[in-house]
Specification:
Strand order of the largest sheet: 1-6-9-12-11-10
Helix content: 10-25%
Radius of gyration: 19 Å
Number of strands: 13
Distance between the termini: 69 Å
Low-confidence stretches: 179-184
Largest sheet: 6 strands, antiparallel, barrel
Length: 184
């Protein structure tokens, strides 16, 4: 059965849907800070940074927390290596707002990247992006309007967080000292 030839141009509906998504995220979402990763010495073969990464810029943006009940993941686990925090959250971000707030200022960033950080000022938590789903919901009106991100609480290892936002820098330096002090 062929598709209807009278309903194949969704340009007006795409614009309306995009505006509604942005308005909904601004109304029901949370203000967060997107912090892109800067690689110091990226090994192209293994895809890791041998010298550690730096995080020096932060971009305030709104995101929708799709899991409103509680954190996901396996909760805190006590293992032979110590306590492991595996709290996870799922966030929804408007593609248009990301292009306006981040891509316009960072020419090498075209979408949220795995390894970048999200800071929640409300909880003073830092999350690392583990996975970015850019195909869901599947092409409403022939266009994608959101990114869905799965994030996990940050694991401090050779990361230098030194943004110009004092709340982030102070909170993270305090937490980093406490994490390292527990191991001594």
């Amino acid at each position: 059965m062929a598709i209807n030839p009278y309903f194949n141009d969704y340009v007006g509906e795409q614009s309306l849907l995009n505006d509604l998504v942005i308005e909904t995220i601004k109304a029901t979402g949370r203000d967060v800070v997107y912090i892109p990763r800067q690689y110091m010495n990226l090994d192209q073969t293994l895809g890791e940074d041998t010298q550690g990464s730096k995080f020096t810029k932060g971009y305030p943006i709104e995101m929708y927390l799709s899991d409103t009940q509680q954190f996901g993941g396996q909760r805190d686990i006590v293992s032979k290596f110590g306590i492991q925090l595996t709290d996870r959250i799922n966030l929804v971000l408007s593609k248009t707002r990301f292009e306006q707030e981040v891509c316009s200022k960072e020419t090498n960033i075209t979408r949220p990247r795995e390894g970048d950080l999200i800071y929640f000022p409300m909880m003073e938590y830092m999350f690392e992006i583990n996975f970015v789903e850019d195909k869901q919901p599947f092409f409403q009106f022939g266009k994608l309007t959101t990114y869905n991100k799965t994030c996990e609480i940050i694991n401090y290892s050779h990361k230098t967080i030194s943004t110009v936002i004092t709340n982030i820098d102070q909170t993270q330096s305090d937490l980093k000292v406490n994490v390292y002090r527990d191991w001594e």
